[in-house]
Amino acid sequence: MTYETIDVRGIQGNFYQGLMSRAEKVAVGEGIEIIQTFEPIPLYEPMEMLGFTYRTEKVADNEYHSYFDRVEKKEDDGSVPFRPAAITNFPLIDEKLGGIAVNFWDLTWSDDKRYLPYEMRLLLSLANAVGAGRIRQATRELVKAYIHGLDARALDDVFELLAWNQGIGFFSSEIGPTPLFQAYKLIKKQEEKGTSREKIAQMLKEKFGEKNPQVQV
User: Fold this and answer.
1) pLDDT tens column, 75-92
2) pTM to 2 decimal places
3) Of 87, 177, 184, 205, which one's alpha carbon is 20 to 30 angstroms from that of 9?
4) CA distance linking residue 135 with residue 181, whole number of Å
């Protein structure tokens, strides 16, 4: 197995999309070696979805080498629209903090002990984000929830509750103009037109993905 080595230690900004683009070009029988200051847990699921297996070695206190072997050629189905890119900021502050942040993320979103369905937790996170004024986070949660298969009728309930709890005036002036509500309107309008869920999901990723400055982290 031959590996292309990519050292992402200390890289600022969201390198996830570029990394996925490079991974898609890797041939079966070849691999990618990722070097990071913490175990790159958020990469495991999307790399598996592209047909990679993985193993990780801790070679020093703040040095992990992850080897991704491509055993099958799979296309990105878009079901993992966002990764926690902001986590890569924490090692810049402190390398141990970076590891703590990744493990906390994994515990919150991927641990088998979680009881509530993933979509429900996304909606709770969406509502909490709106209450805290974190609209870009709320938008990301909405896009993930829909792409993951959430019935759009659940979003109707969420926005009705936001109007009730936040107030009509606040909703009109502070939530209505946001990318969060624009993403919701896109879903509603396209479903009324009979557009397929797959097409709507693609439109959401294009309009409210990482390239959108109001959504990216």
Assistant:
1) 766 666 677 777 878 888
2) 0.80
3) 205
4) 10
